[in-house]
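Figure 3 (text version): structure tokens given as input.
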């Protein structure tokens, strides 16, 4: 069963607006479109417009991976398993085709504001929920997605067509099974932190206790702007030496945003951002890999993928769907 339900305003309000009039026997064989105003002189252009608009105002009821957890009381998504979004229209497509918004990294923020029925600050939405909203919105345009995909076995890049509806349904089922088998909690490897959206785990190499948080839209936007600046600096660099001097720190930047405190086995603790940044830059790889694994365990995020057969190595396996380019104009 699909995780998306479509309805228009006529259905939602229980109105019969937009229901086509029954054809009379005299007009059924005619190729002439009857003039509704001539048939009903009292029907104004405003009435006609309102009837037509009632058919265009469609919305989707979609699931969100978080199921409303990790949001504070009073947030529009708190304790909700599903939400309504507007279907994609030319208004949203104008947002996506705006070069200015792409340059300013405001495309996804503006798109969320336009899509959501609730008035929500996009920065306060969990990353996993944002991705689910974008995937569902993309399906309202077309349920298939054509792009270049990389074989996870031989790394060959080929043109692929993904079925987003099936991939989204499968991702929700996979998330449900994962959450029913939260072994890190059962084994004591991870516990709830001091906030609704934080968790604590012991790092295997340094034995420090790391408290980390789930990422929200505000963190995504921050990381995207940082990466965009780095990419721009690399593009402006004229020599190989200048390019090599620019540090690409994607993983370190994510960890700096994710970790909110570190504690020594003896009990001393720091949550000072500057101090945390210095420590994170020097953390052993074993600890950083472990942190990423723990985040994947607890984060309510979907893994969009589909089984594909590689035309090069002829192996069938799950291919990840590169959803970051769902909406980017060609």
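Below: residues designed for each position.
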């Amino acid at each position: 069963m699909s995780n998306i339900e479509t309805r228009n305003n006529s259905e939602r309000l229980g109105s019969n607006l937009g229901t086509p009039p029954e054809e009379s026997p005299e007009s059924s064989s005619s190729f002439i479109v009857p003039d509704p105003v001539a048939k009903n002189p009292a029907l104004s252009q405003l009435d006609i417009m309102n009837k037509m608009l009632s058919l265009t105002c469609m919305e989707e009821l979609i699931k969100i991976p978080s199921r409303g957890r990790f949001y504070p009381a009073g947030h529009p998504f708190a304790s909700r398993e599903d939400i309504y979004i507007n279907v994609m229209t030319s208004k949203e497509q104008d947002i996506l085709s705006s070069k200015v918004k792409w340059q300013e990294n405001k495309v996804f923020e503006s798109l969320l504001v336009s899509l959501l029925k609730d008035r929500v600050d996009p920065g306060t939405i969990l990353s996993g929920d944002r991705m689910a909203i974008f995937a569902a919105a993309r399906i309202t345009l077309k349920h298939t997605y054509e792009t270049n995909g990389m074989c996870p076995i031989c790394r060959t890049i080929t043109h692929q067509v993904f079925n987003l509806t099936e991939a989204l349904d499968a991702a929700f089922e996979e998330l449900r099974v994962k959450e029913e088998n939260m072994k890190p909690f059962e084994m004591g490897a991870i516990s709830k932190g001091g906030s609704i959206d934080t968790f604590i785990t012991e790092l295997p190499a340094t034995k420090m206790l790391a408290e980390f948080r789930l990422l929200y839209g505000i963190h995504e936007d921050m990381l995207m702007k940082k990466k965009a600046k780095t990419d721009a600096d690399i593009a402006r660099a004229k020599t190989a030496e200048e390019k090599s001097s620019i540090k690409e720190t994607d993983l370190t930047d994510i960890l700096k945003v994710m970790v909110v405190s570190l504690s020594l086995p003896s009990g001393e603790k720091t949550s000072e951002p500057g101090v945390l940044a210095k420590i994170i830059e020097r953390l052993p790889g074993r600890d950083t890999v472990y942190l990423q694994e723990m985040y994947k365990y607890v984060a309510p995020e979907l893994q969009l993928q589909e089984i594909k057969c590689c035309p090069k190595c002829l192996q069938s396996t799950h291919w990840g769907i590169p959803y970051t380019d769902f909406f980017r104009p060609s």
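The mean pLDDT is 83.
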